[in-house]
Input
Amino acid sequence: MSTLIVLGTQWGDEGKGKVVHYLAEQADYIVRYQGGNNAGHTLIHKNKPFVLHLIPSGILFPDRYCLITNGVVIDPKALREEIFLLRKTKIPVKGRFFISEQAHVMLPYHKLIDGILEEGDIKIGTTKRGIGPCYADKVKRIGIRVIDYLEKDVFIDLLEKNVLEKAPILIKNNVDIVKLKKEILKDREELAKFIKPFVANTGFMIEEAMNRNKKILFESAQGTLLDLDFGTYPYVTSSNPIAGGVCVGAGIGPTHIKNVLGVVKAYTTRVGEGPFTVELFDQTGDFLREKGKEYGATTGRPRRCGWFDAVVVRHSVRVSGIKHLILTKLDCMEDIKTIKICVAYKYKGKIYKEFPASRTIQKYATPVYEHMPGFNGQIKGITDFKKLPVNAQRYVKRLEQLVGAPIDLISLGRKREETIEVNKKVKWF
Ligand code: IMP
Output
């Protein structure tokens, strides 16, 4: 059994794209199990930056199989665009990229409703891609799956029912539902034909691959604090990026999961609304944003920046059973005089060492910081842990102690070679 889950331990944007790209070289299958085109991985291919939203970043390696499984929501138009982009870049997809027939399809009304809800009283700061409304339909048992999208009669019937159900909110917001329905039906003709060759029983494919002892990498989108159950609810996404999400989202049993790896940024960022205890509103926040190029790959929004939050990462390590951590963007902390690490939260005189479920505590708690001296000079380019400035080494070791999992790899840049293998003995698969 050679299965590895790679997931984000903060609010997404931890640099999973680079990590997956790094590990995909050793993998045979790369699988996306939740989320949709709300995610965005910036990759470097042949020295050119490249953004993928839906298709796993492993696609850049020839001969790897890439799957989008049932837990993902798929916008067929966005998928087609991404496939076109890959073809233009001369990256073949045919015969090695597949989508689950059970994945749910995102349609234009999902996007419209997402936008409308964001203008209302409960603003989540979503990516406005339609993710939440599409997952809501799935839970309401009125969703349309890829297999339904391919069967014209089934689709027409479901579309009728869905538009009727959504008519009040759409009409109230001046959407011409007759025109909308017509457009969706017209688009389906071409899109269904386009996606059909990629549609498969991905759960079965994974089982077969496991039986042949193939190396399978499950790649999460977003991060633990955006998890529907374990994140900063309701300021979360509508799926489960945590390790448990793989079982439901890809259709494999928990006994088939061998290894879980968490990707963690050396500081913290988040986009969208919601509590963020360690947020910095000062020059250090601006410094991290600029040095770390902290702008959303999907929406271009500036990310909120803050110190490392050990409460958050400890929580992530626990809920996903993380065995290894990969630390990213340590180089973006060069030349900060004093570094702070949040080790606990304080609310009304009480100390919280575990991530609190209460919205009030999440919102109003203040961070309890530990201070450490920073490190000077350029560390980008260093490939040996012992060659890092002593203060950088101490920072890494302290983070490990606080979060309860070893940092076995450090990434100091987007390029593959900008990596320190702290523990050379680790077997990822
Ligand atoms: P949604 O997933 O578009 O519904 O957005 C819900 C929340 O998740 C918002 O705060 C988004 O900013 C956040 N979010 C969704 N996808 C990503 C991602 O890939 N990186 C970081 N934040 C994300």
